[in-house]
Design goal:
The complex is a heterodimer of chains A (about 450) and B (about 375). Chain A is mainly beta and about 450 residues long. Chain A has four helices and 29 strands.
Amino acid sequence: MRTTLLSLGLVMLAAASAPADVDLTVLPERDAVQITVYNAADLTLVRETRVLTLEKGDNRLSFAWSGTLIDPTSVALKAPKHGDKVELVHASYPPRVRGKAVWTVHSEVAGAVPVEITYFISGVAWRAFYMGTLSQDETTLDIDGYVRVTNHSGDDFADAKTRLVVGKVNLLDRIADLARRTAPYGSPRPTPPGAPAFGEAEGAAPRDKLVEELQKARRKFGRQAQEKKIVKEGLSEYFLYTIEGTETIPNRWSKRLPSFHARKVKVVNLFKYDEHRWGEHVRRFLSFKNDKDHHLGETPLPGGVFKIYRVADRQRRLSFEGSSRTKYIPVDQKCELDLGNARKVLVEPVLMEQRFENHRFDNDGDVNGWDEVQVWTVTVKNRRTAPVKLEMLRHARHQYFAVKNDGDCGTYTLDDLDTLKYVLELAPGEERTFTCTMRYAEGSRR
Amino acid sequence: MSYKTFWLAAGLILAMGSTVRARSTLTALPDRDETWVRLDNPSATLVQEERVLTLQKGLNRVDFSWRGVQIDGDSIRLEMLDHPGDVKLLNVSYPPGEAALVWQIYAPEAYREKVRISYLLAAIDRLVTYKAVAEKDESALDLKSYLVLRNFSGESFAKARILLDYGESFEAGVRHEETKRMLFFQAMDLPIQKVFRWDARKMPWDPEKEAETPGIPFFYTVQNTKDKGLGGSALWSGKARVFQKDGHGSTIFLGEDRPGFTPVGEKMELGIGKGRDVSVTQKKMKDERINVRRNDYGRIVLYDTDEEMKVTIENFKDKPVVIELTETIPGQWDMESCTHDFEKEDAHTLTFALELKPKEKVKLVMHYHRRNVR
């Protein structure tokens, strides 16, 4: 298997005073590697551990990373066990040489020094997705959450401690753009046109090697009797998922990992009607809360596609109910899965009467104010075999209005200054009609 | 009267394979004794180099050529250091079609004259970058600053004194097309404040109607003052990458920002990312005309408004948060009642600083009149 970038090119120049590129010593393999993959940006933080043999004083280290999408401005070195005694004093990016840097590392200790080398790499991504299975009576949902990690970085990650971050980070530059720059920090003068990019096509490992590596990983994984755990914890405004053990993800491969399973999550069959958003259609939602009462609430739910199936018969055959892309759902917040237009729940508002009253006249005898009265008959129908909750928004023309409802219209509240929100609970097969009278004040009647 | 020609700056030009012609016999090629590169002005870099010229008595011609080097020809200055009163620069001429000039120098005696040549050099500059590592509890951070020298000027400096706008000069070599990053300073355990900012002018009012959960920007604030661990000098603008300790010996990357120039006494703000575990929903619940004045034709010519704005802030986190809300009210206005204290930023901008406990939900209601609306 092709090893990662630094093991290819990380070499040490023995003496501080020695000119570059002499007395090259190839370093041993990296001892461990950790990747922290972000989902909201094309960004992965790689941290690898190696043992360098340093001399007291200044040591010059040269390394190369061609064929990968590494941001050269991000590469850093730290010796955790030696604190301030080992320090990266400066890094030099030689002229007209791409994918290479020479570091001057000052050390107050001589001998083997374990160091951590960190850098950003582009091309590794992860995403969340979910599968939900509704019970036959549509009252509960079994949820299986997954993550899928994909590696297109040009680098192979073998036995990597894998961590996933949910969060929206600020990024000034795309890591892929930084990785392709000719000069790592750009140039004060414009780069001549036609300067070749690098790092994209190179470095793909032979397929048989990759398969071998994957099989090795499978054998290793196969020895585990149980599914891997994912440890989840909050850091700042982000969530960190640490996958148990290590993962091998060769370049151009991806890996699906189970994230969580929640059983018998109580759901509300919620139907919404809002002409401003969905026209005349009623929209179907499955609603549940990301909290402990719903066997969830351990962490936020990252945004991802939710595919909803329903147990269709006693043999537990499934029907596909629809799919929805969820937003990020914080702990204790309601999650609403939008399953598209509902055909069996209907809302039919009909304008039955229009009157004009209370006219006002100006000094010339012209009309300058009046009331417009609209009488609407609203019919709601539940043609489903399960009970539904319907949230209906009615938008007034403007805020100068009064409303009077006759009949069973459920509960209604003012959602904002010109929007009324009705909430109705409908039994299976129920049909209900109520009257809504809107009185608008126009012109000088306001 | 003898004419002697010296060709300066030739070392670097020769190194580039330059084919500069000398107009007279080339008799000496003095090396640079000392070179200073001043990077204190972000718009131009001043190079000053000292050399020793061997001058004959009388008139001397000295060629200075910079083919392939990004020197501003008008900026070149020559200063005599040993005999400034006696040795005189008589004139400067520019040969056609060349990046060169010829100095005519008068020396009353034959001297070995130390001179200083100054010029503005383009395509060489410096950047500053920062790396901050915050504690897991986000109470403090360690800050490292790096200086990045970028030299694409055409001129290589084997050894030069680099001067910034503060601090001591230092020696460094930087070749043409070389980039060099150096640790500049570090300050440990700087106290930080974390704050969310929600601005009614920029953020969506109803997050439920958004396709993606809107993130609220959050910031770390570092004071550039002595009592907060800094305050030694201004902090330059530059890309800052912020990490956070994860409590397991590693870090995660939080985000990056490019804070502005921060003089001593001011605060540096770092925009980190967006938090989605705090939500703000704003709704206008009332907007009516009152105190309506009409003209003789019954047309409304003047009125006040009676408005009510309801803002619901929810903290879904199990930690307290500080959030600043920015609201605007145009024109003349009076606040009739408000559930929370605010600061008037200007005539039309109000800021609310709220502290929310873990899982707390706060309702902020502003009831105000806009006056004399026409």
